[in-house]
Amino acid sequence: MLMSDKLLSIKDLELSFKMYEGTLNVLKKISLDLHKGEKVALVGESGSGKSVTTKLILGLLNQRNVIKKGNIFFNSRNLLDISQSEFKKLRGNNISIIFQDPIAALNPVFKIKQQFYEVLSNKKKISKRESIELASKALLNVSISDPVRVLESYPFQLSGGMAQRVVITMAMINNPDLLLADEPSTALDVTVQNQALDLMDDLTKVTNTAVLLITHNMGVVRRFAEKVYVIYRGVIVEEGTKSQVFKNPGHPYTEALLQSIPKLNGTSIPIHNDNAPNYAEIPKFTHPK
Ligand SMILES: Nc1ncnc2c1ncn2[C@@H]1O[C@H](COP(=O)(O)OP(=O)(O)OP(=O)(O)O)[C@@H](O)[C@H]1O
Ligand SMILES: [Mg+2]
Question: Closest Cα partner for 33 from 3, 9, 60?
């Protein structure tokens, strides 16, 4: 892969929240690279700092008590330096996000057609009629046979699986360079979750869109990603290709995550137990490139 294909490059990113009780250090010198069209997973348990990373990429952490250091280069621009109006242009246009709960991700008070219009008109001037035509075509393309009914619906009128397809279609309709999928489907059953992953895979392949998949589930990583970063308490503890990480995990925390993949008989080994080492103190493991 050429260096010039680099799309997103996070370098020594640090994030802290100033709280009444003191400073909470959430991200500690995170570095992460994503090339054009690449499928990368950021995997780690709850509270490890996955969602705040996506929020920083989207320019959504601007409260006064937020301290950021380092760089986030996107197409060579530093996202920590750009204005809110520039972010507004990037969001939904060059960078899209799919949040974990599809119904909640949609605005409950607007019909689906209005939400498509919002996204499409961020890219270029468009009439409401053109917007409906484009949205119908996109929905047909994801095997929604009655796009008009869906476009005329409010989010609560859609099933979870249908809402998920709509959300993914909407996120992809402007052919973004980067799709952030923050635990896209933990709220759904496994079949719907797999369908969502397959749909993301299909749509992003066509447009050569890179994906940063945020999850705590190694089963999801195995199904989808090419490259893996493992995050533990705001530190990247391991990085490598999928086969490197699955065949040869180099960090004990990664091994613990792999053991916690739900087994078919429903049992899985919990990561937290009294004998677990302090994973943050164990050096990062980087597989050879
Ligand atoms: N706005 C905020 N103010 C203060 N602390 C925050 C804020 N947002 C997140 N945090 C803290 O930062 C840490 C990382 O949160 P984050 O939401 O990134 O976790 P996560 O890895 O996405 O977890 P999950 O898998 O549960 O979604 C947590 O300790 C959280 O409490
Ligand atoms: Mg999260």
Answer: 9
Question: Which residues line ligand 1 at a C-beta cut-off of 6 Å?
Answer: 17, 24, 26, 44, 46-52, 216
User: What's the whole-model pTM score?
Assistant: 0.92
Q: Using the mean position of ligand 1's atoms as its centre, give its distance from the Cα of residue 67 in Å.
A: 14
Q: 215 C-alpha vs ligand 2 centroid, how far in Å?
A: 8
Neighbour order of strands in the sheet with 39-43: 95-98, 178-182, 210-215, 39-43, 227-232, 235-241, 285-286
Per-residue pLDDT of the chain (289 residues; tens, 9 = 90+): 555 689 999 999 999 999 999 999 999 999 999 999 999 999 998 899 999 999 999 999 999 999 999 999 999 899 999 999 999 989 989 999 998 777 788 999 999 999 999 999 999 999 999 999 999 999 999 999 999 999 999 999 999 889 999 999 999 999 999 999 987 545 567 788 888 899 999 999 999 999 999 998 898 999 999 999 999 999 999 999 999 999 999 999 999 999 877 654 545 555 555 667 788 888 999 999 8
Atom of ligand 1 nearest to the CA of 45: 25
- Tell me the domains of the chain and their CATH numbers: 3-109+154-286 (3.40.50.300)
| Ligand positioned closest to the Cα atom of 53 | 1
